[in-house]
Amino acid sequence: MSVLDRIGQKLLFSFDPETAHGLSIAALRCGLPVASSPTRDARRLPHDARLKLSLCGLDFPNPLGMAAGYDKNAEVPDALLGLGFGFAEVGTITPLAQTGNPKPRIFRLTADDAVINRLGFNNEGHAAAEKRLAARKARGGIVGVNIGANKDSTDRVSDYERGVARFAPYASYLTVNISSPNTPGLRNMQAREQLGELLSRVMAARAAAPAQPPILLKIAPDLVEAELEDIAAEVSEKNIDGIIVSNTTLSRAGLRSADLANEAGGLSGKPLFERSTAVLARMRKLLGPDMAIIGVGGVDSTETALEKIRAGADLVQLYTGMIYAGPALPGRIVAGMAQFLHRENLNSIHELRDSHVDQWLAKPLYQTTAA
User: Among 37, 180, 246, 257, which one carries the catalytic annotation?
Assistant: First the structure.
């Protein structure tokens, strides 16, 4: 991290986490230079053909994406692409606007390079996001839309159907998010019977939509082997296009930030890396070589991004890592990937995929490490 990035981080860290997040969104929305590195402008990044890959009918300029949760209301997807990301995922977006859980609801665990959040799908709802996505549609770039259910919904599956119908014309892909720990009962939809109904109705909604973007399912890292097997079976049976592994964890193993470890919510950042990567490798093994998988959780460097790919991911996402490493991080990771491929004389980033699956399968499913 550069000196200017460190100064910027210190300034943002002087605010509470949610205020700092809002300021960063505002800076991107206004086009302010939020990073000191010239890699903040994607046009200055090396367009290395070896980083390109095609997945689910989409052509990605590089495999690194911004995860859902940062741009909840689809305010700055193009600015995120300008930081060097190959794709950006907005949301989670619910049919109706909702304020989420009471504040404070985001906590920085600086000793662990981690964050605990219990936001609860706070967002402005479908209508506001649709207006923004419609306005930027002609700009190109891969922008996924992460859809969810309202907390007080009486038919949560219907909320996902509405999300598919609403955003199919604008989304490069759609992510069905049933893995947040901050909406009571939401993770229960990962159980096989409920998941089967959800995926059937979601796929039917896509078939009826004017456009048919790929559908991905985002799962939690806090699942046992049998649950992963059930999810893999339903995803395969219902012809889902891909899966995202994973959301935040309820685990607090190995944390140094004892004063905040008992805060309710999902943990993200460096301590999530091993848990989420172990789950990722198992899903690759269960789903086979052809299923699209996005790996997310604890990515904060070129090496952690590459290791996700070695463990079975086609694409990689990050969010919390940028809180600690600054907005120049995506540019540094993409440049580092290009340098690695050149150094190793590889023709494509895809050549790395699955090379460490067996090593990750050998790790205990719930092993975590301190930051």
Answer: 180
H and E: helices and strands count for the chain: 12, 13
Cβ(195)–Cβ(157) below 8 Å: no
The reported pLDDT for the residue numbered 33 is 52
| Percentage helix, strand, coil for the chain under 3-state DSSP, each rounded to 5 | 45, 15, 40
This prediction has a pTM of 0.94
Nearest Cα to Cα of residue 296 among 19, 27, 70, 12: 70
pLDDT, one tens digit per residue, over 54-105 is 999 999 999 999 999 999 999 999 999 999 999 999 999 999 999 999 999 9
Q: Rounded to whole angstroms, what are the CA distances from 167 to 72, 96, 208, 358?
A: 14, 14, 13, 38
Per the annotation, the verdict on 180 as an active-site residue is yes
Q: Which CATH architecture has domain 3-361?
A: Alpha-Beta Barrel (3.20)
- Angle at CA of residue 271, ends 37 and 267, nearest 5°: 95
